[in-house]
Amino acid sequence: MSEQGRRGEGGRLKKKLAIVGGLVILVVGVVVVLMEPPYKGLRTICWPIKEVNHVTQMVQACSTFAADNDGRFPDKLKDLYPDYIDYENFFNAYDGEGRSLGALVYFPGQSDLGFSRSILIAYPAVIDNSRVVGYVGGHVVKMKEKEYQKLIAANKDGK
Predict the structure, then answer these.
(1) pLDDT digits over 67-105, tens only?
(2) Of 24, 66, 96, 114, which sits most exposed with the smallest number of CB within 10 A?
């Protein structure tokens, strides 16, 4: 085979590799674009796990306090330290990088005999238009912020 024929084959090989490389990049790009919505959906489903656990532990500590104090919840969350909560900073919420999101929202003046659907504790941060709340009855849920604000307003109005 002549020198010129070999050069032609090398040029074809480079073209083929460029085409295959381009196709690989295209396929990877398409996969990334297609996977983004499920990833965001998964993140939306999983975001409250840490927050739910945090509020659940605080509701349980309040319930234990109430069991020891004739059914009355504490006047303030700090009353739970150190007998019911042994970590003083647990009354605040923090993001994944350790920045404070503020203190947990507490609704004092209630007892364990009160309306079980009264909000006792709420997570201070709103994520994806939702907030984690813990009720007097002990259950903890992710609630839409609009619904939370409506309940708070109704509570202030005495309705």
Answers:
(1) 999 999 999 999 999 999 998 889 999 887 788 999 999
(2) 96
Q: Which tokens is 86 given?
A: 């042994």
* 8 A C-beta contact, residue 102 and residue 124: yes
Pair 63, 138: CB distance under 8 Å: yes
Number of helices (H), then strands (E), belonging to the chain: the values are: 3, 6
Other beta carbons within 10 angstroms of residue 122's beta carbon come to 20
Residue 44 has what pLDDT? Answer: 54
For residue 159, the model assigns a pLDDT of 46
Domain ranges within the chain, ordered by starting residue: 1-46, 48-157
Q: Give the span between the Cα atoms of 119 and 66, in whole angstroms.
A: 15
- As a whole number of angstroms, the distance between CA 142 and CA 109 comes to 23
Measure CA 150 to chain center: 21
Give the span between the Cα atoms of 43 and 73, in whole angstroms: 34
